[in-house]
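Bench log, entry 3. Co-assembly request; chain sequences pasted below exactly as received.
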Amino acid sequence: MNSIVSQIRPAVISLLLLSLLTGGLYPLVVTGIAQVAFPFQANGSLIVHDNQIRGSVLIGQDFSDPGYFWSRPSATGQHPYNAFHAASQTGSAGSNLGPLNPVLYTTIQVRIDALRVADPQATPPYPADLVTTSASGLDPHISPAAAAYQIRRVAQNRGLSEEQVQQLVLQYTEGRDFNLLGEPRVNVVRLNLALDSIE
Amino acid sequence: MNTQGWLQVSLYLGVLLVLAKPLGWYMARVYAGESVGLNTLLAPVERSCYRLLGIDEQTEQSWKEYALGLVLFNTVGMLMVYGLQRLQSSLPLNPDRLAAPLPDLSFNTAASFISNTNWQSYGGEVTMSYLTQMLGLNVQNFLSAATGMAVLIALIRGLRARSSATIGIFWVDLIRSILYILLPLALILACLLVSQGVVQSFSPSIEVVLLQNTIDTDGHLVSTQNLPLGPAASQIAIKQLGTNGGGFFNVNSAHPFENPTPLSNMLEMLAILLIPVALCFTFGIMVNDPRQGQALLTVMMVIFIPLLLFGVIQEQAGTPQLAALGIDLGASDMQAGGNMEGKETRFGVVNSALWAAATTAASNGSVNSMHDSYTPLGGLVPLFLIQLGEIIFGGVGSGLYGMLIFALITVFIAGLMVGRTPEYLGKKIEAFEIKMAALVLLIPCIVVLCFTALAVTTPWGKGALYATNIEYTSIANPGPHGFSEVLYAYSSMGNNNGSAFAGLGANNPFYNTTGGLAMLIARFWIIVPVLAIAGSLAAKKTVPSGPGTLPTHTPLFMTMLVGVVIIVGVLTFIPALALGPIIEHLMMLGI
Amino acid sequence: MALHTPVQHVFDPSIVRQAIRDSFLKLDPRVQIRNPVMFVVLIGATLTSILWIQTFFGADTASASFIFTISIWLWFTTLFANFSEAMAEGRGKAQADTLRKARRDVQAKKLKEPRYGTPTTAVSSGSLRAGDVVLVEVGDIIPSDGEVIEGVASVNESAITGESAPVIRESGGDRSAVTGGTTVLSDWLVIRITANPGETFLDHMISMVEGAKRQKTPNEIALNILLAALTIIFLLVTATLLPFSLFAITANGSGTPITITITILVALLVCLIPTTIGGLLSAIGIAGMDRMIQSNVIALSGQAVEAAGDVDVLLLDKTGTITLGNRQAVAFLPATGVSEADLADAAQIASLADETPEGRSIVVLAKEKYGIRERSIGELHAEFIPFTAQTRMSGVNLNGSCFRKGASDAIQRYVESQNGLFPHDVRTSVETIARQGSTPLIVTDHTKVLGVVELKDIVKGGIKERFAELRRMGIKTIMITGDNPLTAAAIAAEAGVDDFLAEATPEAKLHLIREYQRTGRLVAMTGDGTNDAPALAQADVAVAMNSGTQAAKEAGNMVDLDSNPTKLIEIVEIGKQILITRGALTTFSIANDVAKYFAIIPAAFATTYPQLNVLNVMGLSSPTNAIVAAVIFNAIIIPLLIPVALRGVQYRAGEATTLLQRNLLIYGLGGLIAPFIGIKIIDFILPILGLK
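Structure output for the full assembly:
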């Protein structure tokens, strides 16, 4: 009993001290440094267009208009690319469908059908990322293959030449970091915003 | 796996080792109380901490005092996390006015963070206020990591001591771990992450106007999107470094605000294994025989690398079902290909499967892709790595002390086979150590198997898919995959990992309660026996080694240790795995 | 020499018959519960038997034969394990019976006072307590253990040692201990009894050989804990497999009736838990003790046997262990002005009456080297001067010459006391001889020092190789001697010991042992004298010579009936063998499980998930055959390994790593592969035999 009592004081005081240090001071210092050194990144890498916040470089949006490049399918609740909805407690989410879940294949089939409805010339093989949901449901990117797959449709629907659209896609294609890390990718929101700016 | 894949895996492992070695040396100096360069700044802070705590830096504790201090400290810590959640609606720093989580969820989350599991029953950004995240979860990210490191250091002291009644002071080990190791590393990593786009702000969520309207499930037009913010970078840095893994956001490090670029991904992956790997070097230095640490590290690598590569290959191959739909699964410079369900474009298959292996080898549990949607064998890799007992790197401190326990068991069997009472680093391994080691071996098995059995038997565990009178979904996927979800959940909680086959609806009283218990049992019923072993070893004489002593740094011993780890894991979980991922794989192949 | 006729073959028919009977008696749950692994098998056997009986009342008769087969083989598994233990015990029992005959009650003559000649009363030997004094005369059986306090007698100790040549027992000195059950052949002894009834050496021996009082050794306890933990794990694995498989049936919509499932799970459980080592564990321990007894060593605690395997330092007495008991003359080194032949002649004459081995060797050397014929002291009319503690010399007075021989300091004192001179060159010779590890003996005639005889310690043949072997085992040898450091160093070098303790006193020995123990080393030593007792009590493994004193025997934890000090090497080997056998069979047992999974898992889920047949890598003929084959393999491997358990895995001195590598290959890799082959063969034979 005695030893318990003697250790209660260090237990409580160290918890309070360390909480202040790691839960108070530490995040405040990081926030201070972040807001001074990287204000753009620290506040959500926002895309401001015509004095209006149109999105974040890092968060994707849902596109179904054939004139836009489509993002990857999203499994977030309420609506696709729902990044945060306090009332319904929904936000980033994956589909979590198992590899043999029939629902996975029926929904993929639905997405393939939608691609083909929007562009009757669309044929297999379909780029893998274009018909599968991302992990976050907020993936801002598609693969260059998925972008290339949509160039004809976008060009036709916008009345632009495929070369023009291709040029734009190339402009918004990011290579691997240091030519090594990650995968090449195309930022859909920025690409579509650029498309809108052409007109 | 293409050249790019090989390059990225090799680069990851190479950089990891290059960074870990000096850190290991640094930590050895920290725990020895030697000067490390940060002393001018931190030594006064450290000393005033001890004054406030009312402890004497020179009076060491017996293992029982050490364990008691640890348990008391974690108990008050758990009460604090629980309280912060339950009261969050009336506390400040809750700009989005989030409601208080229910008692069962609060219990689960408190148990989860106190035990370094960081299982997320809660929904991250949509459940926890900024205050709860900072003062509750973030604080425990540091404290639970430091607790694990302290236990390891106590065990190493036990191995090193000669006829000593004490194993160090918990408070000193705790405070040194945080001040000199975790805080500086977290500060550096947090700033690097912000530079990549991880958010760090106290502003409420931002509303953006969508480029194209979309429609919600009720058919209403949606024209805006809310972007969640928060002090994420500071928390993510420590959740990776401290093998915690509990994300700031629901989808953890798959979230673009939590892990925005391939570079941030590489940094976070390095952070997952950095301290566990470095501690192997620390161990070698502290026992005055670097080869011992390198041997254990080699054993971990020998198990880790093949499983990692196997996982990458499985995910890259995808499933025949995807191929049948006409999907291009081939990897090229145009696309990652493979099984992209539940994976982010910027990470592709290689960085997702690599992360999955690293996060489950370590007891981190953060994810950058959805393990539930992995191919059967791709998902088997993280599941099996967890089931090996979180000793392949494992949690900070906890991984290595777990591996040391396996080393003791191996030494015991090997020692018998060479006809000597087994000894490890000069300490005789006798009935008491084996009894405690057996507990360490048994507890996770009991927890994982029994709770899984309970869950698949009861309607609450099975959920609406299998039980008619239950409204919530527990098991989300049909067939053997549903079983895998439950098995993964309790494997993860029962080994303090925290990752999930996230389709499982675990935020209900059944999973929150059983899971919370599983996490607490798996953490503290192992820590206490480990400290008991530390105390018992410390009290023993150190036997000088001679030609009859079995060396524990040789390839032969390493091979045997690998064998013991794998055989124990395989024998314990193969029947369950056969009913989950293995049969699912066979079904996938259409056999 | 051996205590009993050696058991020629592991499976001696008479022992086997008894062991088979005992196997059934040992089915008693109270016996089984002491071994958690085998207790689980017993429960499994009972459970499947009940399930089988149940099939008579149910509709499901198709599975009856399957359940019956599994049940029968589970019973066999238990019986085989019992049999192995009974076999090990059986060998001890035969010896115990012989010993018990020696222990029978005899009439003892209790003396009124502890003196020869006082009146005696006849009492039963069973009523004697420690402290009583008895008289034993020609033809009497010594009633209990004791210390001779008066008299000298020759005693036949064959009942204990198996050695038929009588030994001398006398009061005082190192030959004063007598053992109950031995017979006095001549003269009489007055004995103070030192053991209470039931605590005599014979009682200890009987209980040791029977294994009745066998305490589990620390390593065995540790291993038992590990095996129990593994058993619990596998119990959980199989117990939870029931809900898992029931869920699988729900999830998949097809499955098997529950009775069969339980039988399969019990079969799986018994196959997985380490029954091989569990069934053989106590046999290994008993057999180890038995091997000890075979080499005529009585271990008074099992712990000491095991500790023997761990010994780091071995303390050995020089005399009788490293060197032959007696020194021999090898050279004559005359003083200046004396011829070598004269010295030889004088030395021979001085030694004529000396019947000690040293004295005889001088006579022989003089004869061999100079052809000096051995003369009879009576013929020469010489006067023999015997050795006394005061003069510390002996010799002969002949024709006015006074030949004396003795140690250099004694002769120097003698010569100088008579105003003679001790020559310088002799002193040099003395030092040279001592440095070479030999003993110098000075021969003098009156005050004229004639020269030095070199007496050499003869190191036993083959001893150097044995020490080299010990070194390979990782054991350091230390020679204990009363010699001066110079002599000791020379002998140590010749014998190849690692270190020596010269001019050893009991205190110095004790100090040396404590010093080694303080640094964590385990020390073994042999001893026989009362002055060895403190050191024996301190040593971790202390082997007392049976010929030694009662004090030494009580202080030690083993008694060597052959009184052979090099026996320690065998004891160390046996200690190691016990551990190695346990380790090897544990590894084998666990490695076996892999193959059993491959046999049982696909079979167990054949109806729910037929796809799992991919794992049936052995290509077993049917699911039921696969399970039956695995269970049969698991059962018969126990009797197949009984010879290994009883004989012990061979120990070869060498580096620990080499040894581990070898045993891992044989028992680890072998344990992985053997069941694949074994189960396949059984599966192949089953239909032929119509067993299934």
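The CA atoms of residues 30 and 176 of chain B lie 7 Å apart. The beta strands of chain B are 206-215, 221-227, 327-328, 423-424, 427-428.
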